[in-house]
From TrEMBL:
Protein name: tRNA(Ile)-lysidine/2-thiocytidine synthase N-terminal domain-containing protein
Gene3D superfamilies: HUPs
A GO molecular-function descriptor: tRNA binding
Pfam families assigned: ATP_bind_3
Keywords, in A-Z order: ATP-binding, Cytoplasm, Nucleotide-binding, RNA-binding, Transferase, tRNA processing, tRNA-binding
Gene for this chain: LOC100816096
Gene Ontology biological-process entries: tRNA processing
Positions of ATP binding: 66-68, 72, 98, 176, 181
Task of the protein: Plays a central role in 2-thiolation of mcm(5)S(2)U at tRNA wobble positions of tRNA(Lys), tRNA(Glu) and tRNA(Gln). Directly binds tRNAs and probably acts by catalyzing adenylation of tRNAs, an intermediate required for 2-thiolation. It is unclear whether it acts as a sulfurtransferase that transfers sulfur from thiocarboxylated URM1 onto the uridine of tRNAs at wobble position.
Organism annotation: Glycine max
Top-level taxonomic group: Eukaryota
Length: 265
């Protein structure tokens, strides 16, 4: 009883799930106050349910994880590897990275991916703009300047992922796009009046009519929770933004959405 009284005096709160451990996390998604272990379980279970309900995979499939070294793809690689073992998905997982040729950014993030390869025991394939197109992104920027360079990079990156996936002979590619990313994309397509993309940008699986579909297991996962998961699990990820992206159109959409979140909270 003394211990319970001491906890109450300090304002400690018990986890609303297990009712045993001290709450140390307030979930941005549900506003529940829970302990770390219950947070891990909830985070992983929700992704597992998304995979099952949307039938994202079939046993025996070869699946490439788009790995940039950032928090989203690093958490995706960690969680998907764990769920694959825990629930016997029967998937053959690979890491697939694109080297755009951005000095001081991609070369550093790829070092993180190489460490993840060892940490998670997953084969890694790296494809580069230089090998595929004969140009690095640094060289492209020197020719066209900083304006619209993200548009060029986006097109090249999508094609490079497809080429890498083809070389790996995978059945699907999964990316770490989360709920925040999708909200930004919806807003961008609204601002651009791009009705065609607006109608398909929220799909959890795209490219089903092509040779290699792409899936987003994090479609309903909040970015804040991905950051919390990576931080508490002490995952090894790279957090620096691309040196060419400060003036990207998407950045303004991201800030607008964050401002709305601050007002709501």
């Amino acid at each position: 009883m003394e211990g319970e009284g001491g906890e109450r005096k300090r304002g400690a709160r018990l986890c609303c799930v297990c009712k045993k451990s001290r709450a140390s996390v307030k979930r941005p998604k549900t506003l529940e106050q829970i302990c770390r272990e219950c947070f891990y379980d909830a985070f992983e279970s929700e992704i597992h349910q998304v995979i099952l309900e949307n039938q994202l995979f079939s046993p025996g499939e070869r699946v490439a994880i788009g790995a940039s070294g950032g928090k989203d793809s690093t958490v995706l690689a960690y969680v998907l590897s764990k769920l694959n073992r825990l629930h016997n998905y029967g998937l053959h997982l690979f890491l697939l990275s694109v080297d755009e040729g951005i000095t001081g950014y991609r070369d550093d993030s790829l070092e993180t991916v190489h460490r993840n390869q060892i940490q998670y025991g997953l084969p890694l394939k790296v494809v580069s703009y230089k090998d595929l197109y004969g140009w690095t992104m640094d060289e492209i920027v020197r020719v066209i300047g900083l304006k619209n360079n993200c548009t060029f990079c986006g097109v090249f990156r999508r094609q490079a992922l497809d080429r890498g996936a083809s070389l790996l002979k995978v059945d699907k590619v999964v990316t770490g796009h989360n709920a925040d990313d999708i909200a930004e994309t919806v807003l961008l397509n609204l601002l651009r009046g791009d009705v065609a993309r607006l109608s398909r940008c929220t799909s959890i699986t795209t490219g089903e009519d092509g040779p290699i579909p792409r899936c987003k297991p994090f479609k309903y996962t909040y970015e804040k929770e991905i950051v919390m998961y990576a931080y508490f699990k002490k995952l090894d990820y790279f957090s620096t933004e691309c040196i060419y992206s400060p003036n990207a159109y998407r950045g303004f959409a991201r800030e607008f959405i964050k401002d709305l979140e601050r007002i709501r909270c």
